[in-house]
Amino acid sequence: xxxxATPVAExxxxxxHAARMQRKKALIDEKIDAARMERGVLLVNTGNGKGKSxxxxxxxxxxxxxxxxxxxxxFIKGHTETGEEAFFRRFPDEVSFHVMGEGxxxxxxxxxxxxxxxxxxxxxxxxxxxxxxxxxxxxxELNIALKHHYLDVHKVLADIAAxxxxxxxxxxxRSALPEMIEAADTVTDMTLIKHAFxxxxxxxxxxxx
Amino acid sequence: xxxxATPVAExxxxxxHAARMQRKKALIDEKIDAARMERGVLLVNTGNGKGKSxxxxxxxxxxxxxxxxxxxxxFIKGHTETGEEAFFRRFPDEVSFHVMGEGxxxxxxxxxxxxxxxxxxxxxxxxxxxxxxxxxxxxxELNIALKHHYLDVHKVLADIAAxxxxxxxxxxxRSALPEMIEAADTVTDMTLIKHAFxxxxxxxxxxxx
Lengths: 209, 209
What we know:
Helix content of chain A: 40-55%
CATH class of chain A: Alpha Beta
CATH superfamily of chain A: P-loop containing nucleotide triphosphate hydrolases
Oligomer: homodimer
Number of domains of chain A: 1
Strand order of the largest sheet of chain A: 3-2-4-5-1-6
Mean pLDDT of chain A: 87
Order of helices and strands of chain A: HEHEHEHHEHHEHE
CATH architecture of chain A: 3-Layer(aba) Sandwich
Largest interface: A-B, 82 and 83 residues
CATH topology of chain A: Rossmann fold
Strand content of chain A: 15-25%
Radius of gyration of chain A: 22 Å
Low-confidence stretches of chain A: 1-9
Shape of chain A: globular
Number of helices of chain A: 8
């Protein structure tokens, strides 16, 4: 039989906990010390779960808390004002907020109009990407416009890559294209575990919009 | 051989697109019509990817945009002020913001102190959960405190269940306990696909804190 080593403090749960936390801290400190590069990052929030756009808006709040200026372009969404729009429009000197589109595509049923709308949105996005005063740009639901080929992903990625230095960009929307995932620094898949919707609960202000 | 039906407009891609969008719209409208219940929901953001807390803070912004009052308790985190704290503290009449704890547990290495801190945080959370003026409560990183058994999950869930009617609650943090997932209406697993960290990029203001 293999003998097992008995740690000195095995009989003391408090000491074991402290030792475990100490090892965890050492490991994490090591990783944090190794990550030294500072530059603008491209973040992508995709997947079929909740939290893609709201996470983007949380980062907007975070950036404003650090005194940064922020640009927002919402693609596709449009006809009803959301809570996030009402709130962030309170700060016109800090947030440049743009809503493009005339409702989700399945309300539109007119592809040519959707393409023209998406292109107008992209012009607005480019202006923000080229503005050195803007520290963070949120391109909300851009993935949807790309997935429907309303915009060309190569053109979009080239414009993002050519943005003003050190600016952060967040792209949201389900079904992110492989090219977008490849180009991104940080990608999260918001995976649906369950949704109140499935239990017959309505979309509610403050939660879904 | 099986004959295949030829749709009337198969030769016209625009018409096919419109028909597809029409069907999609009908399906979604049906589901939305079926979901009629309005009540306070419990949302859980868990997983090892980015966006759990930021999504919670995005919902805070959303709720404020609808004129709701919001309560926030951040568990465990503590010693450095984050962007979200600096930003939402600007609105003391709308946001009741509390930070509990003295840094992540792996900085603390003192379980008894962590438990006392978590309990003090929970008293603050209970006050918000019982306040009918508060429409949304964000319990940021609560899952971590539960996972380390700093708080009892059954007690916490009983207090959440007994909250003021129609209030929404968001719980964030990796490693949500099965009891928390079971009790929740909406659960998202923020799944890490990749993180800038892995490419040696530092945590940066506006993005990670």
